[in-house]
Amino acid sequence: MKVDEIRGLSADELTEKLASLKEELFGLRFQHATGQLDNPMRIKDV
């Protein structure tokens, strides 16, 4: 997301976005630990 997009979000939307990104990061770390992650650079993107 770009900074302008983030600034346009409400507090509730930011909270939801943060929760979804944390969940995605958890999944990526889990896949990385088990050797199932195809693209390790994806972790840095999140």
Question: What is the topology?
Answer:
Elements: H1 3-7, H2 11-34, H3 42-45
In words, what does this structure look like?
The protein has 46 residues and is mainly α. It is 72% helix and 0% strand. The chain is elongated.
Q: Count of DSSP helices?
A: 3
Instruction: Note the overall shape.
Output: elongated
Largest sheet descriptor: none
Tally of strands: 0
As a percent range, the share of strand residues is: under 5%
Straight-line distance between termini: 10 Å
Helix content: over 70%
Radius of gyration: 13 Å
**What is the H/E string?**
HHH
User: Which blocks of ≥5 consecutive residues have pLDDT under 50?
Assistant: none
* Coarse structural class: mainly alpha
Overall average residue pLDDT: 94
Brief overview:
The chain is built from three helices and no strands.
Give structural attributes.
elongated; single chain; 46 residues; mainly alpha; 3 helices
